[in-house]
Amino acid sequence: MGRIEVVARWVVDGFLTGLHRSPRKGFSVEFAEHRPYQPGDDLRYVDWRIAARADRWVVKQFEEETNLRALLVLDVSPSMVWRGTPTRLTKLAYAERLTAALALLLLRQRDAVGLVCFDERVRNALVPRARMTQWSRLVGVLERMREDEGAGARRSVAGDALLHAARLIRRPGLVVLVSDLLTDVDPVDRALRAIRAAGHDVVALHILDPAERDLTVTGDALFVDPESGDEVPAAVADVRDAYRVTVAEALAEWRTTFARAGGRYEIVMTDAPFGAPLRRAFAARQDTGH
Amino acid sequence: MGFLSPLLLALGLGAAVPLLIHLMRRRTGLRVDFPAVRYLARAEQEHSRRLKLRNLLLMLLRVLAVVCIAIAAAKPVSRALGAVVAAGHAPAAVAIVLDNSLSTSVIVGGQPVLDRLKAVAQEVTARAASGDRLWLVTADGRTQGGTPAALSAAIGAVEPLGGAGILPRAVANAASLARSSAVSDPVVAVVTDGQAAAWPGVTDVGGVRLVVYAPDLPAPANRAVTAVTPRPARWTPHGEIAATVGEHTGLVVGDSLSYRVTLGARTLARGTATVDASGTGAISVRAAPPERGWVAGTVELEPDELRGDDVRYFALWIGEPPVVVADTPVGAFLRSAVEALVANGRASAGPVRPPARSVAVVTADRLTDLPALITAPTDPVRLGAANRALERAGVPWRLGAPARGAAAVEGLTSADPGMAAAESASSSGPVTAVLRYPLQPQSTAIADTLARIGTAPWVVAGPGYVIIASPIDPTVTTWPLRAAFVPWVGDVLDQRLAGLSGSLGGRGTGVIDVAPGATLRRPSGAEELEAPDGSSRVLSGTTLEAPARPGVYFLRRAGARVGALVVNPEPSESDLTRIPGQSLAGHFKARAVRVEADQGRWVTAVFDAHADRPLAAFFIIVALALLVAESLVTRRRSGAAGAAAAAGVRRAA
After folding, report:
1. Chain B residues touching A221 at Cβ < 8 A
2. What angle do helix axes A133-147 and A3-11 make, rounded to 10 degrees?
3. Do A56 and A111 sit in the same domain of this protein?
4. How many other CB atoms are found less than 10 A from the CB of residue B57?
5. DSSP assignment letter at B466
């Protein structure tokens, strides 16, 4: 079991278990199976007869509750392979763990989970499956992607990846974009509108290193974009304030873009615990009843 | 605006440093991988105008700060700008020459002139700044440099001299001091009473600026004892005190000046002297005082506004007439002269009272002991015996082979001015000698030449001896036929050979007249100098500086007085006539000369060229203000200094 699995299980077991509930529950749904009760499960679905007979708590799973199709869209472009300080994970490493944890969470709730990794094109794609073996496959894909990370300079094309992901879900489902969003807004905006038109929900987890937000680098330097190779000379002290304003404006633009498209948007700092952003993102989804 | 250290303006080249940094800041070699370059580029693009202005402002602030520091280091001075932003004046080098000669002690308006001059000089120290270089030079040449406070104290302590000093020399010294400074416009500030006698001729002080303060004060009437002469210098024991008193201003012919003559601790005489048309009066006091040995005396007038010249000192030696023994071979004329002197009381025939010794008048070949008046032998055959006798007696002279032929003798005069005048008025012509034995000095010969033939000595006087190079015989020389012969012999016996235990060794009269503070050759045989208060100091070296206070200072050897140093002010110092201001300017040759009688204008003139005020402090303040402004503009940068945590950023070389 790799590090991704360990961390993902720890995150799910420790913080997220029971958080997710299917938004499509109802009296007309068809019973599928029982599963052990987990703290946080709605008590309405506890099978009391089994509890009385066998002295163990199980909850009833309905077919409709497990038919959520979620596709995790992970940005593996070179810009993700960066960290502001050696004591932190790179954005990609953080995103991998987050993705794995999210997949585990969904799979444990009988949701079908797929994965799309992309940079300048879609590098890998897993069709959504609800079986637990899907998680191992997903983690395997992530491990392989890690071995290939940072190879060559490639732009990330999140819009194309989102559209590709949407095509992998036949029914309305959930598309989770995990990216640093160092890409143009318009293609993403267009893709969002298309996805929403197809009935899919969209959640964006914007991965940010604190050094990217605050520009904590000092001195004068030639800043080089690892993806495009663009070079910008700058005196950090001179430009820091303006940079922070610009970043704030960019984040606000992304938030507006996703909100306008009906999606959710969460900023995930790589120095924050894994559970916190997920809790925020999916608690909000649950509250809104989508 | 000028600069006192213009070379330091080169520091202004340092202004190129922030300029170069500004121009080269974008050429840094440090490469940093940074994914969010798009945000950075957008920030620069959106804020580029503000950033450029800010960077330009920073560059200007830094360049101006460096330029201001460079200007401050170059010590800028400016009259116009200085009047607005600075105080004081540019660093100055001022050498103050304070005239403290005797004439400045005169009372005018109830106050000594010197006090007025000191107050004026104090004004310079009061106006001086800590960066100024100041010196004080007094009329006697004494020099002191230091801070304004030290110079002020020194000026306050200045006392009037007992004499004139040498003001031109003091001014020249002051000019040298002022020139020695690095200041561009050295100044010699002279404070004087403008006494005409103090500024003889033209004093060249070179390339300095001379500013003279000479107050427009009236010269008060001044009466002075201008000369005192004991005649002869050594009394046996008869003599005369001849003095001259003068009235330099306010002269009224027929004025009577009361005087008093003292000798030792007693009054020798009192009287009045009448001023004649030349403004002088003569005093003559004859006496045969009972005092013996070296005695000091004074001639005094009643006090007037200038007290320092109302008394004049003299010294003389008083003793018994010498016991003289004339040997027969010296000839009838010398024997007759001695007899006449004995009859007149100027010499004695004996007996001798120790420690005095009799004076022998002998031919050289019969010399046995000193003291002696020695003549050459009549017979050339006795030449060898004469030289052997001279050697035995310790006389460092020898007689050479006889030289014949008439030759004129020069220098034979009597100490008695009346007799000398009578001699010079006679029509008998010069004294001649047809036979002489050239006097040959030995290595140790130290003597005075009393008469000579051509360049060769004919009569020499040394310790205990006087040698005449010819026999005193009318067939050899006309000298014994002259009226001045007997007085001359008397002078020789009294002044050269009598009382040897109380003389400097037979040379001169033993009395040295000097001005206060004068430097003279130390008299041989003098070991100590006895002050009027009885204290004494040991003399050393080859020169002797006369005391500054007038009086009689006895020269001592082995505890006994052997001579006297008589210190009196120069007679010219009593003439208080002043030089008009513009005429005084003509007594100096300098780069610029300005004479002022007004204290305020004079002080202003001293610092006039330095009215350019120093601006270094102003420019330092401006530089600090610029640096503060620069730090305010860059304070965010300073605040972010601790953000070195970005060391983990991957950097491309």
Report:
1. 28, 30-32, 651
2. 130
3. no
4. 13
5. E
Domain boundaries, position A47: 25-63
B-chain residue closest to A83, CA distance: B649
Whole-angstrom Cα distance, residue A222 to residue B187? 62
Size of interface A-B (CB pairs under 8 A): 130
pLDDT in tens, A98-109: 999 888 888 887
The band of A146, judged by pLDDT with boundaries at 50, 70 and 90, is confident
Which CATH number covers residue A267? 3.40.50.410
- Closest residue of chain A to B54, computed from CA coordinates: A238
B640·A224 Cβ contact <8 A: no
The pLDDT of residue A179? 93
Is B252 strand, coil or helix?
A: coil
Note whether B631 contacts A: Cβ–Cβ < 8 A. Answer: no
- What is the predicted pLDDT for the residue at B651? 30
Residue B115's pLDDT is what? 92
Mark yes or no for CB contact A238/B51 under 8 Å: yes
Task: Flag residues of chain B having pLDDT under 70.
Answer: 22-29, 79-80, 82-90, 248-252, 351-356, 414-428, 444-445, 499-509, 609-613, 635-653
Residue A173 sits in the same domain as residue A234:
yes
Q: What is the pTM of this model?
A: 0.54
Q: Is B49 on the interface with A (CB under 8 A)?
A: no
The answer to whether residues A267 and A139 belong to one domain is yes
Question: A211 to chain B: which residues are within 8 Å by CB?
Answer: 646, 649
**Per-residue model confidence as pLDDT tens digits over A245-289:** 899 999 999 999 999 988 889 999 999 888 777 777 666 555 444
- Do residue A34 and residue A113 come from a single domain? no
Residue of A nearest to B58 (CA): A238
Q: What crossing angle do the helices spanning A158-168 and A185-197 adopt, rounded to 10°?
A: 20
Q: How far apart are CA A173 and CA B596, in angstroms?
A: 110
User: Minimal Cα–Cα distance from A202 to chain B, Å?
Assistant: 24
Contacts of A231 (CB under 8 A, 6+ apart): A222, A223, A224, A225, B31, B37
Interface contact A221-B31, CB threshold 8 A: yes
Contacts of A241 in chain B (CB under 8 A): 636
Q: How confident is the model over B237-272, as pLDDT tens digits?
A: 888 999 998 876 665 677 788 899 999 889 999 999
CB interface of A with B, residues 219-278, below 8 Å: 219-228, 230-243, 245-247, 250
Look-up of token digits 């008193």: B245
**A224 and B652 in contact by Cβ < 8 A?**
yes
Q: Is B646 on the interface with A (CB under 8 A)?
A: yes
Same domain, A80 and A30: no
Q: How many whole angstroms separate alpha carbon A203 and alpha carbon A195?
A: 11
Query: Judging by beta carbons within 10 Å of its beta carbon (0-12, 13-18, 19+), is residue A67 exposed, middle or buried?
Result: middle
Q: Are residues A258 and A129 in the same domain?
A: yes
Which runs of E-coded beta strand occur in B232-333? 234-235, 239-247, 256-263, 266-274, 280-287, 293-301, 311-318, 324-326
The token pair that represents B304 in the structure block: 């007037």
pLDDT at A35: 80
> Inter-chain contact A223–B39, Cβ cutoff 8 Å?
no
CA distances from residue B84 to B69, B228, B396, B618 in whole angstroms, order as listed: 20, 64, 82, 10
Same domain flag for A52 and A87: no
Q: B649 — contact with chain A (CB < 8 Å)? A: yes
B156 within 8 A of B118, measured Cβ to Cβ = yes
**B601 CA to chain A: closest CA distance, Å?**
59
Q: Give the 3-state secondary structure of B482-506.
A: CCCHHHHHHHHHHHHHCCHHHCCCC
Q: Do A84 and B649 touch (CB under 8 A)?
A: yes
Collect all residues of chain B within an 8 Å Cβ-Cβ radius of residue A222.
28-32
CA distance linking residue A85 with residue B467, whole number of Å = 117
